[in-house]
C-alpha cells in the first residue's frame, strides 16, 4: 500500500557500492516518543531509490514536501517503508520552524552583538557550536550510553549528499541529564572527546554541553537560509503557517501485500 505524508525534508544522500544502489532521506518532526529516555525532535530516516536523488537536487532543501511512501511487509513481519516520490515545490515556512524549534514568532529578528556568520556550516571538532535536534540514552544490563543528533549544512564536497546532514554522536550516559533541563531542540556548545573506534577509525564522543541555548529567531533564519537576516532587520515577515504533518491515505497499489 501507499500513503502520502507532509514532512519537513532535511536532506538526502545516495550510495552505489559494488552494484548495490540506494539512498536515504531524512525527515524532521515532533517526537512521538513519550519515554523518559528521549528528548527533542525526531529524525526519521526513510529508504529511497537511487534515482530519486536526481529529482531532489532540483528542489530546495530543507523544505516542506508531500512524500509518497510505499509500505510493504518486511522481514519478521516488520513494515518496510520506502519513499518513492517527493511532490510540490516545498517552500520552507518560517512559522513551521518556529513551532518545531520553540522560537517566539513575535521576537525581534536581530543579530546579537557577538554574532559570527562565519561559524555557519563549520565542521564539528573539539568543542563546537551545534544544532542539537534530539538526544537518547540507554541502560542495558549495565551497558550505559547515549546518542546526540546534530544537524548541519552539508559542505558540498560530497556530490551524493544534499540539504542538511544529520550526525549521530555517541554520548556519555550522564550528559543526558544535563540536557533534560535545557530547551530542546537548541543550539549549544558541545564538548567532544576524540577516541579510537572500531577498525582504528576516529570516533567523537559527547562529554558535555555548555551554556544556554543560542538558538533564537535570527539564528534560525540564518541556519535555514530564510529571508530577513540582515543585522539591521528588526522585524520578520514570515509566510503562512504550514500544515502539521498528517498522514493521508492514498490508493493502494494493485497486488501489494500488507
Q: Mind sketching the topology for me?
A:
Layout: E1 2-17, E2 20-29, E3 38-40, E4 42-48, H1 52-56, E5 63-73, E6 79-87, H2 94-101, E7 127-140, E8 143-153, E9 161-171, H3 175-179, E10 186-196, E11 202-210, H4 217-223, E12 248-249
Parallel strand pairs: 9-11
Antiparallel strand pairs: 1-2, 1-5, 1-9, 1-12, 2-4, 3-7, 5-6, 7-8, 7-10, 8-9, 10-11
Task: Write a concise keyword list for the protein shown above.
single chain, 258 residues, mainly beta, five-stranded mixed beta barrel, 4 helices, 12 strands, globular, disordered C terminus
Structure write-up:
The chain has 258 residues and is mostly beta strands. The chain has four helices and twelve strands. A five-stranded mixed barrel has the order 7-8-9-11-10. Strand 10 (186-196) and strand 11 form a beta hairpin. The radius of gyration is 19 Å and the shape is globular.
Amino acid at each position: 500500500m501507499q500513503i502520502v505524508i507532509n514532512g519537513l525534508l532535511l536532506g538526502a544522500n545516495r550510495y552505489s557500492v559494488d552494484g548495490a544502489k540506494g539512498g536515504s532521506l531524512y525527515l524532521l518532526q515532533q517526537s512521538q516518543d513519550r519515554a523518559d529516555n528521549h528528548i527533542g525532535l525526531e529524525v526519521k530516516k526513510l529508504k529511497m531509490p537511487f534515482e530519486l536523488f536526481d529529482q531532489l537536487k532540483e528542489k530546495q532543501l530543507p523544505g516542506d514536501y508531500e512524500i509518497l511512501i510505499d509500505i510493504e511487509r518486511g522481514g519478521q513481519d516488520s513494515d518496510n517503508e520506502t519513499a518513492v516520490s517527493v511532490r510540490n515545490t516545498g517552500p520552507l515556512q518560517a512559522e513551521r520552524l518556529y513551532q518545531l524549534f520553540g522560537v517566539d514568532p513575535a521576537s525581534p529578528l536581530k543579530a546579537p552583538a557577538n554574532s559570527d556568520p562565519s561559524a555557519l556550516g563549520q565542521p564539528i571538532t573539539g568543542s563546537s557550536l551545534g544544532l542539537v535536534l534530539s538526544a537518547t540514552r540507554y541502560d542495558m544490563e549495565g551497558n550505559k550510553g547515549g546518542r546526540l543528533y546534530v544537524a548541519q549544512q552539508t559542505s558540498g564536497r560530497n556530490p551524493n549528499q544534499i540539504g542538511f546532514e544529520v550526525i549521530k554522536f555517541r554520548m556519555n550516559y550522564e550528559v543526558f541529564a544535563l540536557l533534560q533541563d535545557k530547551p530542546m531542540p537548541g543550539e549549544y556548545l558541545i564538548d567532544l572527546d576524540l577516541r579510537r573506534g572500531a577498525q582504528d577509525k576516529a570516533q567523537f564522543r559527547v562529554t558535555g554541553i555548555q551554556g544556554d541555548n543560542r538558538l533564537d529567531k535570527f539564528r534560525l533564519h540564518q541556519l535555514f537560509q530564510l529571508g530577513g537576516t540582515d543585522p539591521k532587520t528588526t522585524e520578520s515577515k514570515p509566510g503562512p503557517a504550514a500544515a502539521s504533518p498528517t498522514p493521508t491515505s492514498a490508493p493502494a497499489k494493485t497486488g501489494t501485500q500488507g
